[in-house]
Structure formats: structure tokens, C-alpha cells
Design brief:
The chain is α/β, with parallel strands linked by helices and 218 residues long. 49% of the residues lie in helices and 17% in strands.
């Protein structure tokens, strides 16, 4: 049976950073739905083109598109031991579809669903201040990690720009959509007895410590 962990939390909660730490510590594959979407966009696959319009508006990609990407990724050999799902599922129907597929595939069930909690105000501040360099995508933040020279990447000197999904209005929409559509998912996993709530506004190291403790507590 595969060891499946679903990492929950709104955009800007730090799921990606924490998922990488958990992946290394537990020896499980890290599957980021955001990375999957970007990969499909870059390769201009049919699924990627379909997802592009939704992502640019900050809306959730339809379930059937997302599930197709996840199922394809989880069929890879590196997921044989298990995986940490980062950014998926985001709705109850997605969670139900995941559960059904795991059962059909004899992979088991979601063992733990840590939820990184962060206030809406903190999320807007974190996300709307992000800028990326055009050459290699190095990320900066106006408050937490500013470049030495305004508008230029420290590493390659390329222009810094703000992605559409990091602009203030899109950020607010992303957060609103998340809480509207994902709050029921928190209760779904709570009822299953696998939810673990983590304070995501603590220092990163403390969040990591709490997360590791929650997933190792079987």
C-alpha cells in the first residue's frame, strides 16, 4: 500500500516549501498540481491549453482536467512507495474521485491531511508582493526578500515582473475562491479523522516541525 499524504492550505501558505521538506524526510514523491499545470502549459499539451484560461483568472481548473493530470503523474514509478499531494485535491468532488481511484488501484487511502492555516490578510501580503525574473524565474518579495536593485534580479540582472496570478486583484480572487470551494474539504478530512491543523503563521522552522510531527504520528 502506498503512503498518501494530502497537504492542505491556501495559496501563499507555504505548501510548496513544506512539501519538499516532507518529501525528503519521508522519502515520498512530491506532486505539486501547480508544477504539473505549468509543465503542461510549457509543453502546450491539450490539458495545459485547457487549464491556462482558468489559472490566469485565478479560478480553479475543472476537476476532470486536474484529475487527469494527477492520475497520469501518480502512475510513474517514483510514486510506488507513496506521494505527498500539494495543491490537490481542492474540492470535495476531487477528494472523492481521488479516494475512488486509490481504492480501485489498490493503492490504499489518504493517511494524513495536514492543513496549514494562514489568515487572509497575511496571504494577500505574502502573494501580492511577489516578483519573478524573466530569465530564470528567480522569485523576490517586496517586503520579505527584496532585490538589491529595484526591478532587477540579483543573480542574472534580468528584469523583474509580476505574474498575472500574483497581482493584487487576482490574488484576492484566488484566496476567495480557495476558501469558498475548499472549506468543505477541510471538514471532509476532519470527518475521516486524518486532518491535522498547523499554524502557518509561525516561523517556517516551527511549521516544519509541527508538520513532521503530525505526519509521523500514525
Amino acid at each position: 500500500m502506498a503512503d498518501l499524504i494530502v497537504l492542505l492550505g491556501p495559496p501563499g501558505a507555504g505548501k510548496g516549501t513544506q512539501a519538499k521538506v516532507l518529501s525528503q524526510d519521508l522519502g515520498l514523491a512530491h506532486i505539486s498540481s501547480g508544477d504539473l499545470f505549468r509543465d503542461h502549459l510549457q509543453r502546450k499539451t491539450e490539458l495545459g491549453i485547457l487549464a491556462q484560461g482558468y489559472m490566469q483568472r485565478g479560478d480553479l481548473v475543472p476537476d476532470d482536467v486536474t484529475i487527469s493530470m494527477i492520475r497520469d503523474r501518480m502512475s510513474n514509478p517514483d510514486c510506488a512507495k507513496g506521494a505527498i499531494l500539494d495543491g490537490f485535491p481542492r474540492t470535495v468532488p476531487q477528494a472523492q474521485a481521488l479516494d475512488a481511484w486509490l481504492a480501485d488501484s489498490k493503492l490504499g487511502a489518504v493517511r494524513k491531511a495536514p492543513y496549514i492555516k494562514v489568515s487572509e490578510k497575511a496571504l494577500v501580503e505574502r502573494l501580492s508582493g511577489r516578483w519573478s525574473c524573466r530569465a530564470a524565474g528567480h522569485v523576490y518579495h517586496e517586503k520579505f526578500n527584496p532585490p538589491k536593485q529595484s526591478g532587477k534580479c540579483d543573480l542574472d540582472g534580468s528584469e523583474l515582473y509580476q505574474r498575472e496570478d500574483d497581482k493584487a486583484e487576482t490574488v484576492k480572487n484566488r484566496i476567495r475562491v480557495y476558501f469558498e470551494q475548499t472549506t468543505p474539504l477541510i471538514e471532509y478530512y476532519r470527518r475521516k479523522g486524518v486532518l491535522a491543523e498547523i499554524d502557518g503563521e509561525k516561523p517556517i522552522a516551527e511549521v516544519t516541525e509541527e508538520l513532521l510531527a503530525s505526519v509521523k504520528n500514525k
